[in-house]
Automatic annotation (TrEMBL):
<protein>
    <submittedName>
        <fullName>Predicted N-acetyltransferase YhbS</fullName>
    </submittedName>
</protein>
<dbReference type="Pfam" id="PF13527">
    <property type="entry name" value="Acetyltransf_9"/>
</dbReference>
<dbReference type="GO" id="GO:0016747">
    <property type="term" value="F:acyltransferase activity, transferring groups other than amino-acyl groups"/>
</dbReference>
<keyword id="KW-0808">Transferase</keyword>
<feature type="domain" description="N-acetyltransferase">
    <location>
        <begin position="1"/>
        <end position="145"/>
    </location>
</feature>
<dbReference type="InterPro" id="IPR016181">
    <property type="entry name" value="Acyl_CoA_acyltransferase"/>
</dbReference>
<dbReference type="InterPro" id="IPR000182">
    <property type="entry name" value="GNAT_dom"/>
</dbReference>
């Protein structure tokens, strides 16, 4: 039995492995997720490992590097997903060996930490700490008090040349957020992998002022960014009108951005999940400050908006 980096000729077998590994879980999209994550800008083959036994691939784990902001500092971290072991080899240590190996490669690659969403009875044995992120949003009551210039905005699909403006808006929207994942400098980071989720750019007098991703059927807003407080109000008014929202609207924003909607009736929601785990591979004072804050109150957790490949599952 050997553990090695995946090769392109392994891709089909890896997909088949995840289909069988999650056959009884009600979800088999992990095979699709692995394919999509290979298209990410920072995809690193040495962080996508397989366990091979007599020519047969019996296990696979993948860590994809991303840039994170944590306590106003920038770090290179990773997201671990998927992890799968072929039926017949489960509960025989294959997954544990893969976890140990991918952590070792992640440290060599310079990652500061790895985040995942998983079983809190399994991953802590590998150094993962629970309740470090979860659900974070701002709930705003309708009708809106301020409708701003929402009716003057135009909406369209994102284009490649919008990337710089999108990243700048993201930075402003997530300023002072305790923890967040920074979208890559690629248009693919702003286009959903789900056909039901539409990405929209909002402009005022030819200038980009906002961005959303919205589920067309459920009308759930999965991503929201704006140039500033005024633009945020305009974009929200445009969304409420275009999607004919009538009750409440939940924005995927950290409560620090409640300062953008001070005239509205709103309530923050922050809840740390047992499944929201991070394994710190390096030491840094910022990590200790973040953990202490989360221990004191769920209000101090960051906001993890999963990269668009995860919207496929």
């Amino acid at each position: 039995m050997i553990i090695r980096a995946e090769k392109s000729e392994d891709y089909m077998k890896i997909g088949e492995l995840h289909c069988s590994a999650f056959e009884n879980s009600g979800s088999q999209e992990e095979s699709v997720l692995a394919c999509l994550l290979r298209q990410e800008k920072a995809y690193t083959p040495r962080l996508s490992l397989v366990t091979e036994e007599k020519g047969d691939i019996i296990g696979h784990v993948m860590v994809t590097p991303y840039t994170f902001t944590l306590k106003n500092q920038s770090f290179t971290g990773g997201i671990l997903a998927p992890l799968g072991v072929k039926p017949g080899w489960q509960k025989k240590g294959v997954g544990s060996q893969l976890m140990t190996a991918v952590h070792r490669e992640a440290e060599k690659s310079g990652l500061s930490f790895i985040a995942l969403l998983g079983h809190d009875t399994y991953y802590p044995r590998f150094g993962y700490e629970t309740h470090l992120f979860g659900e974070t949003s701002i709930r705003i009551s309708l009708p809106l008090t301020e409708k701003g210039r929402g009716s003057q905005l135009t909406a369209r699909k994102p284009l490649t040349e919008d990337t710089d403006a999108l990243q700048e808006m993201w930075s402003k929207t997530h300023a002072d957020v305790p923890l967040a994942i920074v979208p890559d400098a690629s248009i693919h980071s702003w286009l959903s992998t789900s056909k039901d989720i539409q990405s929209r750019i909002y402009s005022l007098d030819g200038r980009i002022v906002g961005y959303t991703r919205i589920h067309e059927r459920t009308k759930e807003i999965t991503s929201f960014a704006a140039e500033n407080e005024s633009a945020a109000k305009d974009v929200l008014a445009k969304v409420v009108n275009d999607y004919q929202l009538q009750e409440n609207v939940s924005l995927p924003l950290h409560p620090v951005r409640m300062d953008w909607f001070t005239q509205e009736t709103m309530s923050p929601k922050t809840k740390a999940w047992p499944a929201g785990m991070i394994c710190f591979l390096k030491s840094d004072p910022a990590f200790d400050v973040y953990k202490r804050g989360v221990e004191e109150s769920d209000e101090n957790i960051g906001i993890i908006q999963w990269p668009v490949p995860f919207e496929a599952i």
